[in-house]
């Protein structure tokens, strides 16, 4: 008998982690950070709920920190076996985990200054850069479709999940005394309307299926409407002469926005003089996207090729598609943008404006009525981004209050996750006897809504609880 235990992404979407125990091996599927409110993040400090020394292998669905962010902790606790993932995920986690470690080290340094002054004992970061280095040494990159044996009785195969570069649907084949059982983990499934990536691959069979439910309760606004609104705002800004700020996450959304701006440029609809990508991390990620253009979807790959005819095959990229794209890497380059009063589009992090270079651009642009801010991603409650979306009249930065006169736009249609309709469509590819379906990675109401719709399609979904065990 194989046994699966749900250790994360059960109440909510973060902390993705599942333990698979077979007759001969123990395997961890994802090892993500809990993210969100302080109380939720405290769960990261708890000891891992299994013996690290008993693990034979780790399999990672994709690079996002809510799936990968506790890997260095696992390694710091003594794990030294292989960590399997797709090749692009291997490149992306290097950027993401290094950034996570430096943020944690910086936070703790700050906290310790306070603790020292109070005469209290100092605290340690969750993990350090050295732990990330050790983690990266254990990573093994596989190609999509490549089926390989990873423990005595388990084989793995990654299929494209179309969510971010390198994201995978994980198939685990377990052999048990001559009988094969198949566990499928959807990972995070992509939105088939999104740019650059392919649609999530279809799976026809499984014994046990774990399905993400992030958008289990809703559909996205149509991509057509979203792109039309994007085009309108950009035109309006070029007519009234202001800058456009786009707060954006480094992985995925930034590259999608660059591609969409490239489409407008190619159609002669972009009149701005320059687009600045002002985020060292987003630049590093965009360069990784360039390295794997061969796995973009056929249509977008063809659009880039057609627009880049004078460039050699090697040079073709988002840069030849959008030639006015500039990278600003150093702090000086970023500061120089403060002097640009018109005709620029600045893409910078963080996506919810709670840190990063976007904050100084907001300071220099929000008070001008000709400026525009376009939100292209989800804004969580309590973040500065959410306050701006909700109509805040002042923006507080470094003790200074800046009046908000800029036009604030929210484009709801960009999403890296499959909508409810797309999730149900993906389930529709299964043939014959339906697998046991477990809904994970979603807020309670999203899972409930998805369960209701899946039931009408003949499924018997189960919403897994934390620590729940399933034998199959
Ligand atoms: Zn994800
Ligand atoms: Zn996720």
Q: Name the CATH class of the largest domain.
A: Alpha Beta
Tell me which CATH architecture of the largest domain applies here: 4-Layer Sandwich
Total number of beta strands: 22
* Mean pLDDT figure: 95
List ligands, each type once: zinc ion
Give the helix tally. 15
Largest sheet: 7 strands, mixed
Provide the CATH topology of the largest domain: Metallo-beta-lactamase, Chain A
Class derived from helix and strand content: alpha/beta
Q: State the distance separating the first and last CA atoms.
A: 6 Å
Oligomer: single chain
The 3D shape can be described as: globular
Tell me what portion of residues adopts beta-strand conformation.
15-25%
Walk me through what this model shows.
- This protein folds into two domains: 3-218 and 416-471, Metallo-beta-lactamase, Chain A, CATH 3.60.15.10; 223-410, Rossmann fold, CATH 3.40.50.
- The protein contains 15 helices and 22 strands.
- It has helices spanning 38-41, 65-68, 71-76, 87-117, 129-138, 223-240, 253-266, 280-291, 298-307, 318-321, 331-336, 358-365, 384-389, 420-427, 444-456; strands at residues 3-6, 18-21, 26-29, 57-59, 83-86, 139-142, 148-151, 154-160, 168-176, 179-185, 208-212, 244-247, 274-277, 325-327, 344-348, 372-375, 394-397, 400-403, 407-410, 436-440, 462-463, 469-471.
- Strands 6-5-4-3-2-1-22 form a seven-stranded mixed beta sheet. A seven-stranded mixed beta sheet has the order 7-8-9-10-11-20-21, covered by helices on one side.
- α4 (87-117) runs antiparallel to α5 and α4 runs antiparallel to α8 (280-291).
- The chain is globular.
- Bound molecules: zinc ion (ZN) (2 copies).
- Residues 62, 64, 163, 188 line the site of one zinc ion (ZN).
